[in-house]
Q: What sequence folds into this?
């Protein structure tokens, strides 16, 4: 019985470790969907659009940009990225959101790349929110024509689902977004796995050691 419990615990802990490393967001690089742009490789997506797989467009329109665009910009990873300004100067800015399965009380980390450009105006900033928590992130005030900076946002899940949202906060003609991921971070460390398994093994050993004695006591009674 104890061996079975040990195996079940080991499987659960290893499963949690796998979840911590996996990207819980679908299409985090914005590589899939129905991309049908004009000749400039830039497709405008408005709220309600279903073209970008896994994502909802919110707040205002944005630009989905593919490789070979004429703007002097490239994706941080892959061939596609977003511009939350949609090349319209100033606000309102567009955004995207996606709902993932979460465990209440557990901590999650969202990582993403924010794009900025001297050509299209600085600084670029966006707001990230999830489970009633939010934070603003701003790119460098100086740099080149196609810069990407990685940022992280941490939140604690309030329920079995959490909606992660990215919305442009400030900028001129460009607020880049690419290579987005979300993962569970509040899981036991590897050393905790070993301690937990050792604890169960000890309990099982004690049960097996005391079993003959318990049987003898039962017969005497």
A:
């Amino acid at each position: 019985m104890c061996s079975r419990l040990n195996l079940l615990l080991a499987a659960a802990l290893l499963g949690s470790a796998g979840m911590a490393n996996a990207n819980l967001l679908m299409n985090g690089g914005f590589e899939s969907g129905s991309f049908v742009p004009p000749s400039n490789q830039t497709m405008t997506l408005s709220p309600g659009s279903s073209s970008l797989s896994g994502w909802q467009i919110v707040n205002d329109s944005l630009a989905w940009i593919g490789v070979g665009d004429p703007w002097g910009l490239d994706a941080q990873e892959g061939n596609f990225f977003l511009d939350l300004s949609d090349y319209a100067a100033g606000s309102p800015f567009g955004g995207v959101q996606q709902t993932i399965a979460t465990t209440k009380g557990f901590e999650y980390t969202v990582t993403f790349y924010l794009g900025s450009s001297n050509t299209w105006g600085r600084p670029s900033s966006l707001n990230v929110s999830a489970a009633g928590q939010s934070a603003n992130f701003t790119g460098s005030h100086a740099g080149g024509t196609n810069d990407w900076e990685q940022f992280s946002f941490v939140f604690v899940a309030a329920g079995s689902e959490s909606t992660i949202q990215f919305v442009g906060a400030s900028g001129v003609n460009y607020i880049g977004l690419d290579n987005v991921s979300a993962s569970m971070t509040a899981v036991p460390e590897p050393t905790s796995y070993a301690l937990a398994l050792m604890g169960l093994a000890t309990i099982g050993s004690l049960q097996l050691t005391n079993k003959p004695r318990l049987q003898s006591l039962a017969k005497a009674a």
